[in-house]
Design a protein that fits this description.
This protein has about 240 residues and is mainly alpha-helical. It is about 65% helix and about 5% strand. It has a single domain, classed as Four Helix Bundle (Hemerythrin (Met), subunit A) (Up-down Bundle).
């Protein structure tokens, strides 16, 4: 399997195609989050960002350049991020912009913690299969112990991390005193981590409709990984999960 992954990685055309699939699969999921809040709290901002994201998606379909793909992916995510402060309906929480290492506010602290949980979950599931977690396609394998889990995470971040973050805030389930400042950045404290963990694993057990059936997110993740196994082993074209509603 490692050799099969490496062959695809070093074939630039195949690598770009597979990398683009991860990005294109993330787009409907980004849109789904925006549409959810637009339905609850209609704003012209949401419609504007949806149109901008759709224009980027069309360019992604046609790109044949890896660096351009990364640039377009970043553009789509920036348009998505512009909606974050409007998603928040509770005073005391702001997003402003994405900050990492360290996260500079409570929203970014939750995003970083949630992404880490998702990366770990995906890596554990990948390691149960013949797939080599070190070999990703959207994320470069150089200097990374794990990359394939980061690729798959692009699909699920909006659904499993972002929705949990804004749900915890808007339901007032998490409060500013569930965080601490270490002199450089802001992080969840022990209580805050437990609150997030509970919500994250509850979300994994949530069922969504897939081909007319209710399927839990944790099962969708396992099947997504198996689709990659079949892609490399059996030549089955990889068609990533996209949540429509």
């Amino acid at each position: 399997m490692t050799l099969e992954q490496l062959e695809e990685y070093f074939n630039s055309e195949n690598r770009i195609h597979l990398a683009a699939q991860f990005v294109l699969a993330s787009i409907p999921n980004l849109r789904l989050v925006i549409r959810y809040y637009n339905k609850m709290y209609p704003e012209t901002l949401y419609d504007s960002m949806l149109r901008k994201i759709d224009r980027v998606a069309k360019k992604i379909i046609n790109t044949r350049d890896y660096d351009e793909l990364l640039l377009l992916e970043a553009q789509a995510r920036q348009f998505y991020y512009r909606c974050f402060d409007s998603f928040i309906r509770v005073e005391g929480f702001v997003f402003e912009k994405r900050s990492r290492r360290p996260p500079l506010n409570e929203v970014n602290a939750m995003l970083s913690f949630g992404n880490t949980l998702l990366y770990s979950l995906l890596a554990n599931e990948i390691n149960k299969t013949p797939l080599d977690v070190r070999i990703g396609f959207l994320h470069a394998t150089n200097r990374r112990e794990q990359s394939l889990n980061l690729d798959l995470a692009e699909i699920f971040k909006p659904l499993l991390v972002d929705r949990v973050v804004f749900s915890l805030i808007n339901r007032r389930a998490i409060k500013p005193d569930d965080f601490y400042y270490d002199g450089k950045g802001i992080y969840l404290n022990a209580k805050g981590k437990q609150l997030f963990l509970n919500a994250f694993y509850e979300k994994l057990d949530t069922g969504v409709t897939v081909k007319g059936k209710s399927v839990k997110y944790k099962s969708i993740i396992k099947e997504e990984i198996q689709k990659l196994v079949r892609h490399f082993r059996q030549g089955e074209r990889y068609k990533p999960f996209k949540q429509i509603r």
